[in-house]
């Protein structure tokens, strides 16, 4: 069988595709990926791939009706759907997620039901949705009463037990920003939490803030816990821990608690009725001594891929272990160390191998002891030999297009081709607070978008950071909103057949006018947008500082969107 190699550049999902979670779906022989969507409706986009080269959007788990039940119309900026986890549990597709920053008064005013407002409050926004197939229909939401915090994980162990795991602010914090990861059995027949909460982690070290995005995995006789730490910004990182659990995770918890009781050790729980397995000297989970297993925080401000973390693992039957995570592509500013980002958090991937130390060294006495426990998988090594996210990957597939191997490749430049997007294209999405517009993700640091003459065009960071271009009596008017200030620019006259556009680059934006939509072939009167159009033939109407559209300036977690006004 002949092998074919394709080169794929990171990130594999460009523009605002944050908080990736994925799984190998043996029922479809495909990799399945879901991302956070914040205020966007529809939400929780689902993509599948067989080869990591071609990604197919098979649907969105949250449609308009589900979004109403999830109170999306009532969320604040950078609120909405956070950090989903997708798995198959007891034979069905399951996504667990959090809806965050809900303004209850606004939600009720938008027509959301009081029952869902109460369900959201009782679950702190944590819910489950299920489906018989990825294409839907998705059922729910099932509010998880008693859940606390954000970033839920769902894990089905080898004994059939199902565990709900997530992070919450530490109830008795030792430092500001400390969180704790807790777990609890859950009954998938009615999605109710069972027994009691058990705190299983509080961070890798002293002053380890925001241990979040937890995932549990079984690898042989071991259960591994992977968490992000440092917050989802420049100190972001990924940590790995594990516990020996050959008889199941529940049995490992019970054995640990019996052992410390036999030694008359008591670990104080965070509150009455809960348990804890994180003592001063006794812990259920052993941490990898090489933590973090992934980060870019040590590379400094000259590194243009920052904020790396919030990872998820899968095991492909031929290609082996793979990791997905988020990262942010930054644009250097004028000042040394100054960085700005416009795209939000994007989805990156990397190969993973599992390794153990080759020997166990002793300081005196016997010779080094060779490690020969074949049942011990060791610890994950992300992008072996590189120590950072690869810029590009060699994807080796067979004649049938089936993935066989993923290797680190030399960097490759991926030139974005112009795309004509019509108003009925499913890539155009809505966003809360801008019901009069439909949007597409800004997906390159050097980005051009053009809109048909009859449409207003917007670049949207959030409700208080946006740029709107429109033509009135053939005159181009630009409205620039930067927090509490609004500026208005008049940029002259355009011809009836000229398209309006914006070129975003190097922390600047140029306002453009161009006939024939950048020379794109095949566009017609029903075309709405052309993205990555060639701006070299455009007429520059004006220029403006774009930094107020960056995440660093505006705050929050989202990236820019380009949109056209509904008509």
Automatic annotation (TrEMBL):
Family annotation (SUPFAM superfamilies) = Arabinanase/levansucrase/invertase (SSF75005)
One term of GO molecular function: xylan 1,4-beta-xylosidase activity
Q: What is its EC number?
A: 3.2.1.37, 3.2.1.55
Keywords, sorted A to Z? Glycosidase, Hydrolase
Pfam families referenced in this protein's UniProt entry, alphabetically: Glyco_hydro_43
Which interval of the chain is the signal sequence?
none
User: What GO biological process terms are annotated to this protein in UniProt?
Assistant: carbohydrate metabolic process
The record's comment on protein family reads:
Belongs to the glycosyl hydrolase 43 family.
Q: What is this protein called?
A: Glycosyl hydrolase, family 43
